[in-house]
């Protein structure tokens, strides 16, 4: 994430020097002391920045056109500048020349089709999305739906064949999503993401964990995704958490609600501390973090080495 934030920071088309200075004033004290050329290093540093953004948004709502304004011009354009910066940072992950291993993708696709599973992601998911294009997951008879048919509509998430249709939910948004001049929410293709650089997106979550739920609530697209997530959780027998750090409290609360008595598998890269007592201590820690009764911990050498998608006791 730090590389993405720095790359966006270095894009002078997205942020002016004045805007960088204003953002720096919203960062923790130890960061403010650094040169203005140094970008925020992670979501945990964006707490005050998000609060200032929300305050500017709220004040703008009560301003009257042609009347005395509460904000000067800098304050009015500040939220748009922040959202453009966040979108530019998210775009970074769509510009990397990487691909998922074929064996990993094949085993995942076969499992999703075989179990009728849903997929929900927290990152911006270029690798997974690219791997699924042209696969059976997007085929007419068994496919994942995300609510887009030319444009997004919540009714497009209705499944007419639930046994062969699953949800594909980008829970924290994607730089592919944008709102057009008529107010419609649309999705560009992978090749088109570069044309959106600098877009002031309201459909991305990149902020301190304390504000993620509020950012989600402000986007009709993301709100619909999280409603669909609850539907998916309610009908699922278990969940596999792949590479999840466990820090998103709004997600943990839903996992606790829907999977407290169900099967919870966690796939994390092996660490020395996970090897103590054959991993039982780590599994207990995860159970407490997620608020579930029992977890099963997979510890491959690398996340992409995982192949066991259908664990049972």
Description:
By secondary structure, the protein is α/β, with parallel strands linked by helices. The protein folds into two domains: 2-94, no CATH class; 102-305, no CATH class. Helices cover 39% and strands 11% of the residues. Strands 1-5-2 form a three-stranded parallel beta sheet, with helices on one face. Strands 8-9-10 form a three-stranded parallel beta sheet, with helices on one face. The chain has a two-stranded antiparallel sheet with strand order 3-4. Strand 6 (177-179) and strand 7 form a beta hairpin. The radius of gyration is 21 Å and the shape is globular. The model has no long low-confidence stretch (mean pLDDT 85).
Question: What does the secondary structure layout of this molecule look like, with pairings?
Answer:
Blueprint: H1 2-9, H2 17-25, H3 29-32, H4 47-62, H5 73-91, H6 102-115, E1 119-121, H7 126-132, E2 143-145, E3 148-149, E4 151-152, E5 165-170, E6 177-179, E7 185-187, H8 212-217, H9 220-235, E8 238-242, H10 249-259, E9 263-267, H11 280-290, E10 296-298
Parallel strand pairs: 1-5, 2-5, 8-9, 9-10
Antiparallel strand pairs: 3-4, 6-7
Give a summary of the structure in a few sentences:
The protein has helices spanning 2-9, 17-25, 29-32, 47-62, 73-91, 102-115, 126-132, 212-217, 220-235, 249-259, 280-290; strands at 119-121, 143-145, 148-149, 151-152, 165-170, 177-179, 185-187, 238-242, 263-267, 296-298. It has 313 residues and is of the alpha/beta class.
> What is the helix/strand order?
HHHHHHEHEEEEEEHHEHEHE
Number of helical elements: 11
Q: What is the structural class?
A: alpha/beta
CA-based gyration radius: 21 Å
Mean pLDDT rating:
85
- How are the strands ordered across the major sheet? 1-5-2
Biggest β-sheet strands, sense, barrel: 3 strands, parallel
Q: How many domains make up the 3D coordinates?
A: 2
Strand content: 5-15%
Low-confidence stretches: none
Distance between the termini: 36 Å
Shape, please? globular
Number of separate strands: 10
Helix content: 25-40%
